[in-house]
């Protein structure tokens, strides 16, 4: 009788959900681990932002959207201020 081989990944019943057995649980990570991961994410974001700023067209292309966004925020704050003034009368 030939030796039995280990089942291949396609053999056997389908998995009931995602397999997290090889990953580190978020609950088991210490606050220090989480803060290091957050700092690493921030550093990566800053590096990506700096890389984008090296392209002079990036700022020129983004400026109209940024100005429009600021104008919309000012209008929103102005409406909120007028509503508060009405309530205080």
Defining traits:
flat; 0% strand; 89 residues; mainly alpha
Quick structural gist:
By secondary structure, the protein is mainly alpha-helical.
Provide an overview of this structure.
The protein has a domain at 56-89. The protein is 62% helix and 0% strand. It has two helices and no strands. It has helices spanning 31-53, 56-87. The N and C termini lie far apart (94 Å). The model has no long low-confidence stretch (mean pLDDT 77).
List the topology elements:
Layout: H1 31-53, H2 56-87
* Cα shape: flat
Structural class: mainly alpha
Count the E strands: 0
> Quick one: biggest sheet?
none
Mean of the pLDDT scores?
77
Report the order of strands and helices: HH
Oligomer: single chain
Portion of residues in beta strands equals under 5%
Number of continuous helical runs? 2
Helix coverage percent of residues? 55-70%
Low-confidence stretches: none
What would you report as the Rg, rounded to the nearest angstrom?
27 Å
Distance between the termini: 94 Å
């Amino acid at each position: 009788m030939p030796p039995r081989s280990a089942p291949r990944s396609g053999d056997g019943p389908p998995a009931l959900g995602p397999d997290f057995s090889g990953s580190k649980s978020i609950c088991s990570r210490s606050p220090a681990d989480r803060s290091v991961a957050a700092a690493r994410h921030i550093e990566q974001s800053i590096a990506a932002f700096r890389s984008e700023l090296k392209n002079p067209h990036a700022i020129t292309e983004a400026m109209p959207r940024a100005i429009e966004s600021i104008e919309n925020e000012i209008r929103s704050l102005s409406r909120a201020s007028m509503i508060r003034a009405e309530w205080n009368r």
